[in-house]
Write a structure and sequence with these properties.
By secondary structure, the chain is mainly alpha-helical. The protein has one domain. Helix content is 43%, strand content 10%. A two-stranded antiparallel ribbon has the order 1-2. The longest helix is centred in the C-terminal third of the chain and has 19 residues. The two termini are 25 Å apart.
Length: 98
Amino acid sequence: MDEQRCFLCGRNGVGDPLELHHVFPGTALRKKSEKYGLVVYLCGKRCHREGKKSAHRSKETQLMLKRWAQRKAMEENGWSLEDWRKEFGKSWLDEEEE
């Protein structure tokens, strides 16, 4: 995880400080996001909260981040799809990836 650059746009946070984003929401899944490193730094206003394509406003961006995080966790932990589902409840990958 790069703490110096926005995961989405690559900016360094000057003028729009970077903020930590947990890919999976809700108390239990936020904790799992932290546990497995499924967090990214995003430009606070532009990419995290307020922009059209920001993580909190765009379903497309949310899905892209969830797919990235799922692939990352499965690879790093040697998990099967079933293992992933046991831990996170559902898969966000498309059928071709499953």
